[in-house]
Amino acid sequence: MKPKCVTDYNTYMHGVDTADQYLAYYPFIRKIVKWPKKVIFYLLQCCLFNSYVTFSKNNPNSRKSFLDFMSDIAENLIRTSDAVSSPSSSSDESQGSSRTLTPTPPKRIPKNYPPGRLDGKLKHHQLIHIPPTKYDKMPTQKCRVCVRNNIKKETRFFCAQCGVPLHPQGCYTRYHMLQHY
Predict the structure, then answer these.
(1) What DSSP element (H or E) covers 6?
(2) Structural domain spans, the chain
(3) Which own/partner contact pairs does 143-146 have at CB distance under 8 Å and 24+ positions apart?
(4) By C-alpha distance, which of 177, 178, 181, 173 is closest to 157?
């Protein structure tokens, strides 16, 4: 005794129901003002789901969930973008280029500690001047050690390996030698 519209919906809309259900589990869309962004993210998520369905059909023995599939895609995109953005030194040498790449501080200071921070090899950690920009000839950033100790001081140096702004006097040594500086 179901209405005909319910029967038709159940007969013809099964794939859309499944897709909507999967997309509802891990929504990309956040509350934003610009509606084109919502549309782009929704279409991106639909493309990811379609590729997940294709992957599942081509690999029937794989028990990978949609979340694992999306995280694998994101990791691969990050890995390939890192490989593209950081040129290898061997390709520079083979082209006969004599220029040296000077490291620049990251746009955002990393919240987590870099892996080699407490390795005890201070010669690997070089303090370098923060390079000037077209808007600021002598840029400064807040020193990581001073900020942790509630001191408002800025520095013109950063550690090339860690990407953290530090004063060359005591802060550099404290940051690389002490767990809790």
Answers:
(1) helix 4-12
(2) 4-85, 122-177
(3) 143/167, 143/171, 144/109, 144/171, 144/175, 145/170, 145/171, 145/174, 145/175, 145/181, 146/171
(4) 173
Q: Is 26 exposed, middle or buried (0-12, 13-18, 19+ CB in 10 A)?
A: middle
What amino acid is encoded at 123 in this protein? K
**Tell me: the pLDDT tens digits for 22-77?**
888 888 777 788 888 888 888 999 999 999 999 999 998 888 899 999 999 988 88
Strands (E) in the chain, as ranges, are 127-129, 141-142, 154-155, 157-159
| Identity of the residue numbered 147 | V
Q: What is the DSSP string of 17-55?
A: HHHHHHHHHS------S-HHHHHHHHHHHHHHHHHHHHH
Q: Which two tokens stand for residue 160?
A: 């090339």
pTM for the complete prediction? 0.42
